[in-house]
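Hey, sorry to bother you again with one of my protein questions. A protein chain has come my way and I'm curious about its shape. I'm sending you its amino acid sequence along with the backbone structure tokens. I owe you a coffee for this, so here goes:
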Amino acid sequence: MAQAAGAGQSHPSQEARGKPMPERTAKANAAKSRVRARVEHVFAQRKDKMGPFIRTIGIKRAEAKITLAKLVDRI
């Protein structure tokens, strides 16, 4: 898998404190960043279609509203 530009380099603020980021932490941050990059695009699309808020009470009703919005998108 290709690495992003600057991957593996410590952050300037870390160097300013005199504490380099441990390699283990840098790898964990990179893995989390890859997941976030994929997921955030999906949520941004949902937000554009539905607006920034899902105004319901309860997770089941919110899931139902999202499911209905997905069905409308496909038609």
